[in-house]
Amino acid sequence: MTTTQRNLPLAAVLLLLLSAAAYARAQALPAAEASPISTGFTLPHAAGSLNYAVSASESIASNRFGNSGTSAYSNFSGDLAFITDSQRDPFSMVFSGGRSWTTSSQPSYSFLNLAMSQVVSLKRWNFVLLDSVSYMPGTASTGLSGVAGVGDLGAGTISTGEDTGQGVLTGYSTRVTNTSSLSIQRQITGKTSIYAAGSYTMTRFLSNSSSNGNNPGLDNNGETASLGLSHRLDARNTIGAGYAYTNSTYTGNNYGVPEPGFSSQTALGQYTHQFTRKLGISASAGPEWTTVDSAGSSTSTSLFADLSATYTGQFAYSALSYRRSTNGGFGVVGGSLSDSVDFTTGRTFIRVWRCSATAAYTRTENLPTAFVVPFTFHTEVAGGQISRALGRNLSTYVSYTVENQTNQGIAPTVDLFSGLNQVVGFGLIYAPAAIHLGHQ
After folding, report:
1. Each residue's pLDDT tens digit, 47-64
2. Distance separating alpha carbons of residues 68 and 420, to the nearest angstrom
3. Cα(217)–Cα(204) distance, rounded to whole angstroms?
4. What is the CATH classification number for the domain harbouring 44?
């Protein structure tokens, strides 16, 4: 008997025990309870608090990682997030991770995401240090973990370095991504400030089998640097201007042919407006010049744009964004230009129900390179989750996620996903109320 086969019955037994406990607690759920009732994991809303959750779930997937057929997974995962109560120098951390087992021909896998930030304030200076690392079996899609079906849709997201919308989907290609950054802001006057930032991102694809027998992805190193000026016109309006430089290089290769790196420079204008305390918009746009390090390639000019609108209420939230920019190619190609539209929303009903949904469409094309035939990826990801409290700290959920990707042209890629993948997940989540830290 294999290790996977031993673990699957254990997963089923624990899920059954949690179900029995959930049913018992559901019978005593008050109709009007004064204390908060959990409908799943959420990020902390106040300084000096810690939130955590553990979950056991089952998911059923078709065409998972591009392999035909239907597979069943047993999942165990956990989430942890906290922020210190320091008003001047707060530290925050978010973690999400777990393990999925299956006895089918699909691979079992682990996943984790960890992000930490430290703020240091010295008179008019503000420093923010950030480090995030992820270990994923494939391209991140939905939820805090980036893995469909584990019950964290609507809990938030963890940045892994490329803020470029939904990435190009691959097959089973385990990768590690780490991003470290430092940003500095200096208040010049009560309304005007300057800022500078720099970051380094590293992506490495580990030794795992791909469907076509080649390397699973392109290893990438990326550096960014930016500076700018921000001025608050009044309580609701802020304008600014900035400059950014990015550079990407590749240490892996496809089919024995090294991928050329590229660099981009962007000049942009910025504007934010707060309509109400709950509703605001933000816009950044400007020209972007990109040069590919390949003989015969010339500098190309495109539009950089980053537009977003957010609504945050007591029981509901929504966010809509559009982004157009160059990026590192998601380990699939040596640099690309993406247009991405993302929408997320969630709402709590009658205190015991929570509904969350997300949808994203991304069009990705290769950067103009001499002697390379243009190719394009169209990626769509959508998901929905309904959660129901079974007690003060326990909830159940059901979720559905669909991923679809089509490819046009000939791309020098390895283990690229093409087709339709669907995942149905259901399970139990233990998520107690926030724990207060420090002085209250």
Report:
1. 899 999 999 999 999 988
2. 10
3. 8
4. 2.40.160
